[in-house]
Amino acid sequence: MTSARRTVAAALLADAVCVVVFCTIGRRSHAEGLSIAGVAETAWPFLTGTALGWLAIRGWRRPTSLTPTGLAVWLATVVVGMALRKVSGQGTAVSFVVVASLVTAALLLGWRGVAAVLVRRRPTRLDR
Asked: What is the pLDDT of residues 90-128, one digit of tens each?
């Protein structure tokens, strides 16, 4: 596997892990139980949004970029996730939309921000 493909795979995995972490924390904080089925039930709308965001922005082109990839993936995660929750009978209270937007922004944009800092700090060949 090439370095570029590994980067895409790692970025996609990081986004999926962030969404699952968000859903797991949410279920835990509301005492809904942490079964695999329960987390999957909560996560699928958001994971669908994440995948659609990747497809819409062609995330594989710039998988670790904050903009446009990170922003598009985050927006799709929230918008599609909430729409799917609504049609599937899950909650979409305004307070939940606000919290979900903030937490997923911190996670999906946050790891990209950290990655950007780490890449900038990486020594060049002349520094070695």
From this structure: 989 999 999 999 999 999 999 999 999 998 877 665 555
Q: What would the two tokens of residue 119 be? A: 């890449």
The count of other CB atoms within 10 Å of the CB of residue 39 is 19
Residue 9: the pLDDT is 97
Whether 23 has a pLDDT exceeding 80, the answer reads: yes
Rounded to an integer, what distance in angstroms lies between the CA atom of residue 40 and that of residue 9? 21
Task: Please tell me the distance from the alpha carbon of residue 45 to that of residue 30, in angstroms, as a whole number.
Answer: 18
* SS3 state at 63: coil
- Please, are residues 52 and 76 in contact by the beta-carbon 8 Å criterion? yes
- Domain of 46 in residue numbering reads as 3-127
In the chain, how many domains are there? 1
Query: Is 23 in contact with 42 (CB distance < 8 Å)?
Result: yes
SS3 101: helix
